[in-house]
Every structure is written in structure tokens, then in C-alpha cells.
Amino acid sequence: MAAALPLAVLLLLLLGPVGGGHAEPPRDTLREELVITPLPSGDVAATFQFRTRWDSDLQREEGERITLEKDNCHLLVSHYRLFPKALGQLISKYSLRELHLSFTQGFWRTRYWGPPFLQAPSGAELWVWFQDTVTDVDKSWKELSNVLSGIFCASLNFIDSTNTVTPTASFKPLGLANGTDHSFLRYAVLPREVVCTENLTPWKKLLPCSSKAGLSVLLKADRLFHTSYHSQAVHIRPVCRNTRCTSISWELRQTLSVVYDAFVTGQGKKDWSLFRMFSRTLTEPCPLASESRVYVDITSYHQDNETLEVSPPPTTTYQDVTLGTLKTYAVYDLLDTAVINNSRNLNLQLKWKSPPATGALNRGLVFAEAPPVPFLYAQRYVSGYGLHNGELNTLLYNTHPYRAFPVLVLDTVPWYLRLYVHTLTITAKGKENKPSYVHYQPAQDRLQPHLLEMLIQLPPNSATKVSIQFERALLKWTEYTPDPNHGFYVSPSVLSALVPSVVAAKPVDWEESPLFKSLYPVSDSSSYFVRLYTEPLLVNLPTPDFSMPYNVICLTCTVVAVCYGSFYNLLTRTFHIEEPSTGGLAKWLANLIRRARGVPPL
Amino acid sequence: MVAAFSFSKGLTTLSGLLLLSFGSLAASQIEVTVENFLRVLTGRIPPSTPRSKRLLSDDRSNILIYMTGHGGNGFLKFQDSEEITNIELADAFEQMWQKRRYNELLFIIDTCQGASMYERFYSPNIMALASSQVGEDSLSHQPDPAIGVHLMDRYTFYVLEFLEEINPASQTNMNDLFQVCPRSLCVSTPGHRTDLFQRDPKNVLITDFFGSVRKVEITTETISLQPDLEIMESRDKKDWMDEELMEPLQYAEQLPVAQIIHQKPKLKDWHPPGGFILGLWALIIMVFFKTYGIKHMKFIF
């Protein structure tokens, strides 16, 4: 708060002496949201979203740089207020159209938790759309991953051609796009990457209020990493500036999703509170934010509203169709002075007034009905035995009773698992299910991975199995990591699907709408777009015995020394007869003493 | 584990505070190799390396290097698969000295037979401390009954205890650091080497290596920033003009099924044969007719 005052003064100074009362509208806005969703399995999911919108067209400003004089051109793109300078400079330097980077620890269990707002694969994922003006996309990609590894303190410099692919149908741009030439898209996943506090700290530094005020106060690393699922992401894309959509604004969206295991953190009770989850409470809104809200999903609570309460009671509720179903949210607006009143402390709590009916200890039976199964979920595993062959299987479940929908599956398999594409079989309900679109790019040893993209129509109420056999390769002994018996990771499959929604979404000005609706633009409201990831796989490769080079050297040297040495001696050793030496000086001295003693000489 | 801190004294700004525990420098364990460590020290890193992963030291920087792990007489193990020897380390420090990459260097090592690692140094301005002499083992401090693994080494534990009492204004000197962890506590005999250091250790403050103080001057005068009126007016005019000209933009469809299904693979276009092919065939035909005579031509054409 103290920092906001001189900032406001500075802003006034900037705006004040402009000639003729020319009111300059703010060029960037910040909106922050926190959504707390209780999941069907009893856990609690908290999703933060910080949207910074910058009404500036970086591309055009580059053109302007040519026309204006040299010393003026720096002023145009050098004033960063809410939008972080590190990312703004990245966009202009590497001519990015979109950037999506995420760090995840854990796995989102779609079967038990429901469809996610925004899922990310375990490890680090980076996908980027470059502008049409970029001539050497691979070089820009390599430099970009190095710069990002410096900004986020992560090992993104391990992204190279062996784990980068160019998808041909998945990962369409999420922002404004005129023409989608997939040669400007690059996608890479590092499933081995571990997320820790050192990745969270630079992520928090990009926020305008940076863990001092507003919702980011809750982002304390020691509680955030004590979760079943932790995912933090940065999304940059161009969006419409107004409803007519004639000019571009840049949107930076920073999201953080965590899932708390309620039984571990809540000591067996289903109560939760902000303090228990984050060990902090909300004290004040971020003065730089134009919106700062907390949404609590109370859809499933309406049925049993006698037994539990949300405190403090919400002043407003908000109903909307998210992820295909109608949900009710209790809204707490931090900018509303009634919410954070003289106590200056907001600790949202959920309490059970009376213990729920039978089976309270068994978390599956707490709800009256069984937890709803999502329409689409997937599973992936490796089968086979031994260290030579194996089979990769992906199971895709469509639980909708009568509607079929398409799923685009993207598989990236590292080069050391040699896929036999002729064994690719897709079966559903016992019959073969032919995909409508298949794209396969074979791997080259040590150069690029396998890329397999398929558009499969999932029949209603079925489980589709995609299986492909592979053979494991033997790597060169220097290519093994220091812990080769841990296994080698295979990146998760990406499933992009248009899942039918239960309730049709109303067309709203979705750029203004809260939550995650505005991230995936859909034109057809009868289905919603979701991107799911399967589990990453650990595959054991045949590893050599790393002590063998030392053993071989010892053994060979011993054998050579003994055999060759003795052979050489046998062939070249000659014997000479040697005269015994006469003794020399010592013998003469001894004889002198003996003569003195009177003893016969030697 | 390896950690390197670099501080600069005097007028230059902090040239690079870098925790090389393979914390901010190399975030994943795979990056911790002997080659990467020596590259960071000597500065021979690929040009695309970001600034936060470089040492960025100059001839006014004081560098602290702390190494711990398993080791032996003349080597230290990295990641259980490779070793760094004392000769390599000494040569790396000499390269740093030749390139003026440090002003003074403090090297602390906590391994078995740690003193062997500093025996080979030959560059000036290096002070070294080790937790044990050649032929002795460094022992670990206490096990954690929950995990079953030892958490810290004795020498590290006592050095940390000593350092926790140091604040940025402290006047403690190096001689006190040499006394940390005597044989009664550490079971091994810590050693040190100061012959390459030009100053007397009792005049060297601990905070020369372990702390850095930035000089901050607070001023009470206010500076008012005048916006450049011409730029703002021209910028707003351009916004207004272009709004009328551009047609509305659209978001891309996320899963355009029809478009994807009809995405045909790119067929290679047929190009007419180029000059080289034509010339080659003309040559072949000429040679043929010269050899066998022109009478064959009517059978070909």
C-alpha cells in the first residue's frame, strides 16, 4: 500500500501536464481470480488466475521504429507498467505470436476429479507460435528456450531437436490468428523436470503485486508444494482489444492450480479454510488490480445446505456454464469494502454443521449420489516384459450415453523406443476404429523423436484402445544419465477434444467473463474444448554394467603385462658370465686393519 | 554439491550473485557435471546461455567456492559417475587468474582427505580450507531417524553455526574461521592454506566473502518526469486512424475437424528438369552419336 501512493503520484505527474487535458486511458489492466472447487473425491482444488492485459501492439511499434528518429523510438516499447518487461522484450525480440509455458508436479486425475480448467503435463511444457516474419524458426526456438530457462530458473536449455516436434493439427493458436501455418509452431515437453520453489519465485516476481497484496499473498511455497498436484503456467497471446476486434492487445495469463488432499491437511474432516490451505488469509486487494475476486464452487453444496455453511456468507452468487455444466459460485469481491471490512482479514471457511450421514469416514460415500464420471478421460501404460520389446497402450474412455465426439491424439515418443507403426491398432467395442486423420513422422536416431497424430472418433459409451509395439534401443554408454536404472521418460499424450456439454453455454462477451472461459474460444456452444494429458511413462532401457570399462582396462593391462612381458623376456634376455668384483676400496681398508691386527688378509 | 558466490567490492555493481548448488544455475541434477562446473568457472559457455547462469565476475570480484560430497586423495565425486581432480581445479583457477576473473578466492571443501584438493593450487590470491587432512575421513553429523540418512557433515554443521552469528557489520577475520571445528568436535583435523594469499589472514574479514553490502544513497529531492507530448499525440492519432482501416480479426478454431480431415499431405510439385540434367543428357547423346555414327539417329527420333 505504501508503494502505491508514490506510484499514484508518479502517474498523476505523467498524466497531468499533457497539453489540453488529453485524458490518457490506462494501457494495461490486471484482473485476479481465485476459484476454489471441491472435487468429487473429497479434495479441494484452488486455481489462481492473474490476467494482465496490455493495450499495445508491439508489432506495429516495430514498424514505427523505422519512421521515427532513433532517440524517440526507444520510448515506445520501453515503458512497462504492469506487463513484465522480461516477457515484453521476449515477445518483440523473438517475434512471438503466442507463448505457453507450464511447470507441473503431480498428475490431474480426471477420472476422480472431473475435467480440469487447464491441465498441464508433468514436468515442463513449452509451446510457441512464431510470427510469419521469422525466417529461422529452429534457431529462434533454441534461443528462446535458453532465455526462458534463465528467467524461470529451470533446465529448459535441455530442449533441443530430440524432444521438439512440430504438430500438424493440434495446438492451434489460442489467440487471434490469421492463417495457421503449422511450420511456425514448436512443441516440447521435459517430463523429467522437477518443479520447486526456485521456479515459483521468478513466477511470482512477474506479478505486479508480487506476493505483497491481493491474492498473491496466499502463494507461500511451503504450503503450495505440499499438494497432490501443483501446476504453474504462463500464457501470452494476442486478444481483441474491443468487441469490434480491430486491434490487438497482449494478454498475459499466469495460472497456478493446486489440489489439496483434504484428508491429509484437514485431519480427516472435510472442512477447509484459506488459512488451513495456504497458512495465510487475504488482507487487502492489490491496488493495481481492477478486479480481485474469489469464487467458491457451491454447486454441490446446494443439495445439502442444512449441514454445511460457507463463512463469511457470500454477498453475491454467480451462475455460469463452465466445462459444460451449470455451476453456482459464491463471489467474494476484495475490492468491495463490505467484504474486507474493519477486520481487514478474509478467511473463507467451509464448516460442516453436523456430521454427515453414514459412511462419513469413507470419502467415496459422503455424497448422496456417486461422484460424476467425466465424459472423457484417458489412461496410458506400457505393457510387455523384458528389456527388448514392449507395447504402448492408450485407453480413451467416452462415457457419454449417446453422443460420439472426436479426439485428436498427439504422441511424442523418444527416438530410443523404435515404434513399429505397422502394429498400430485402434479398437473400440471389439471392432477396429479407423482414424480420420493420421500423421506420422518417423524418428531419426539422436535427431528427432517420433510424432504420431491421429483424429479418432470415440463411439458413445465405449473405451477405445490405441496400441503400438516398440523395441528398445541400446544407447551409447556416454548417453546414459548418471541414474540410468531410474528409467527414461516418455512424454504424456495430448488429447484435444470437443466434449459435448450438458448445458449449452450462453454466448457472452467472454473476454470480460471471469474464470477460465475466455482461454479456449469456442464457436459452437453445444460442446466445449478441453485438452487432457495422460500420465508420463517410465521405460527401462537395457543398461550396460558401467563398471565394465574399468574392469576391462585392469584385466587387459594385467594380461598384456604378464603375457607380453614374459614373452619379451624369453625372447630377448641373454645371460652373461660376470667376473666377481675384486672388492675395491673397502677390501683394501679391511686388509689394512687385518694386517694391523695380525689376522690373515681376505 | 558445489556452490560459488561472487561479490565485487568497490564501484562496480554486483556482478553476479550465483548459487551454483546447482540451484539457480543448473536447476536439474543432470546439469551438474564436471564439464559444466569448469565451464562456468572459466567462462567458456555457449553463447546462448542466459545471464543468470553465468559467473559474470571481473577482476574486482571475490569468489567463494564451497564443495562437498564424497572424495578421496586428489579427487571429488560428481553425481556418483565422474570425478574432478585437484589438478583440473588448480588449472581452472589459473585460467581464471590469467583472465582476471577474480580478485580473491576462498575455497572451502568438505570431503574425505579434503586437504589433497588444495595442495596443487598455484595461482595467487587463493585461500583454502578443508575439513580433513590427507589420510583422514570427514564424518557426518547426525542421522535423521525418520529418513535414515545423515543430513549434514560435521564440518559443514560447525561452519554454519559459526556463520550464523556473523552479520554484515561483523569484524571477524579469517583466523577465527580457521579455528572452527577442532579435532575434538570434528574427529578429523581441518586444514587451511594461506601461502598464496597476499594479505595476512588476520586482516581479511569474513564478510569479504560471505556478505555483500550495496552502497545506497538516499536523496530527498523530487524529480518530475515530463511525458514527451509529440510521441503521445502521434501514437494516439495512429491508433485512431488504423482502427478505421483494419478489418476485424478472429480467433482460430481449436479443433476444426473438417479442415483437419481434408488436410492433404503436401505433394511434391513437378518441376521441369533443370539445366544440369538437360546438359548431362545432351552430352550423353552427343557422345553416343559421335561414337556410333549419325545413322542411328533415325531409329531414336
From TrEMBL, chain B:
MF terms in GO: GPI-anchor transamidase activity
GO biological process assignments: attachment of GPI anchor to protein; GPI anchor biosynthetic process; proteolysis
Protein name: GPI-anchor transamidase
Keywords assigned: GPI-anchor biosynthesis, Membrane, Signal, Transmembrane, Transmembrane helix
Pfam families according to UniProt: Peptidase_C13
Quaternary structure and interacting proteins, as annotated: Heteropentamer. Part of the GPI-anchor transamidase complex, consisting of PIGK, PIGT, PIGS, PIGU and GAA1. Interacts with GPAA1. Interacts with PIGT; this interaction, via a disulfide link, stabilizes the expression of GAA1 and PIGK and links them to PIGS.
Family named by the database record: Belongs to the peptidase C13 family.
Signal peptide (residue range): 1-27
Pathways involved: Glycolipid biosynthesis; glycosylphosphatidylinositol-anchor biosynthesis
Keyword set includes Transmembrane: yes
One GO CC annotation: GPI-anchor transamidase complex
Keyword Repeat: no
Naturally occurring in which organism (per UniProt): Ailuropoda melanoleuca
Transmembrane residue ranges: 270-289
